[in-house]
Amino acid sequence: MTNQKLSILGSTGSIGRQALSLVDELGITVESLTAHRDTATLEQQVLRHRPRFVCVVDEKQAAGLKISLGHTSTKVLSGADGLCRLMEMDDSDTVLSSIVGIAGLRPTLCALERGRNVALANKETLVSAGGLVTGTAASNGCAILPVDSEHSAIFQCLQVAAEGQSLHRIFLTASGGPFFGYARDQLEAVTPEQALRHPNWVMGKKVTIDSATLMNKGLELIEAMWLFSVRASDIVITVHQQSIVHSMVEFRDHSVLAQLSQPDMRLPIQYALTWPRRLPCPVPPLDVHGMPALTFEKPDDATFRCLYAARRAAEKGGLAPCAANAANEVAVELFLEGRIGFLDNGELVCEAVEGCASGGADSLESILETDALTRQGIMSQYI
Q1: Residue 33: strand pairing partners
Q2: Which of the residues 55, 119, 132, 352 could staple to 327 if both were Cys, CB 3.0 to 4.6 A apart?
Q3: Average of pLDDT values for 83-110?
């Protein structure tokens, strides 16, 4: 039992819902919850977990929820600014940051500024503002605990390494998504419905499309650079379609440690919430005699251009990762709406990275300006 207080930014999404399925058994008190507009799910979560605060970004939906929760003691906040006000008002020990996209940046920074440990499931926060976020965490004595299965695997492997065992390389595994092995001409006719059929994981739409384009792995590469203080050249991406090995680390003596488990997000979520302890988890045990043969293959970044663009952004540095992330967020929306083709995702991200002005991502203002300008530049082509 942990006896900790938890706030969840994005509690109605896949990560938030799975986290809430764990809290009772772990003895965690839910302090606050947030949603963008899914108040039907949020209301049920409030009635079940009785948080002190909730925030709904959509003002109209927030007004309705305030009425329906009038008989409870839960205070309802609203708007994007409400997310940061909530971080100032609640009394949580840990904040699970699982809002999708750049929208998670401000409230995550607010949580770190208030001295909260952050269980980070929002990879775009570190991609767009890695130096700012890690610097804020360091100056306030906060821990950033990775929730992504791959970064959690790396983190777990590093926990058992004794002092003086220097990290040499990271092997970041990728499922390959539903189109691994496809040629460019095969990808031209891919539909959003096809791209949303991930073979191993059940995730939200944006993350699922990112997995199909391999942008998800590019974003994770940049995130890993900040989490583990490594260069892009120290990270090897390998396609592991079975999703059993969640990542590996190699030390200077060429010993390699790996973390294996069923492809179930409840395990990395729980580890982030209970670290450094390991507690019983509802994830089924791994049947080593019944699991499939494990394979590892090189990704094709000439075909999956999102992966190429993300690595290029990582090498370029500065505001380039922010531009890459913004371009990808817009491209995913356009693709889901049927306004661009599958391969256009990669081309738009490549253009944004190469067209990004030089400059450091050392302030929230410069990061948000780059994000906005990138989005405007792409959307102006599709008005």
Answers
A1: 8, 54
A2: 352
A3: 95
Q: Is 60 exceeded by the pLDDT of residue 1?
A: no
Place of tokens 């208030």: 114
Instruction: Determine how β-strand 94-97 pairs with β-strand 117-120.
Output: parallel
Helix (H, G, I), strand (E, B) or coil at 27: coil
Render pLDDT for 41-85 as a digit per residue (tens, 0 to 9).
999 999 999 999 999 999 999 999 999 999 999 999 999 999 999
Architecture per CATH, domain 5-146, reads as 3-Layer(aba) Sandwich (3.40)
Which residues, 6+ apart, have CB-to-CB distance to 348 below 8 Å?
A: 327, 328, 330, 331, 340, 378
Burial readout 134-173 (b: 16 or more C-beta within 10 A, e: otherwise): bebbeeeebebbbbbbbbbbbbbbbeeeeeeeebebbbbb
Q: What is the pLDDT of residues 239-257, one digit of tens each?
A: 999 999 999 999 999 999 9
User: Whole-angstrom Cα distance, residue 85 to residue 377?
Assistant: 31
Is the distance from CB of 65 to CB of 54 less than 8 angstroms? yes
The two structure tokens encoding residue 128: 């767009």
- Kindly state the average pLDDT of the residues 79-95: 96
Domain layout of the chain by residue ranges: 5-146, 149-176+214-299
Residue appearing with tokens 């040629």: 183
Most distant CA pair in the chain: distance in Å? 62
Amino acid at 353: V
Reported as type and span, the H/E element at residue 359 is none
- Does residue 271 contact residue 278 with C-beta atoms inside 8 Å? yes
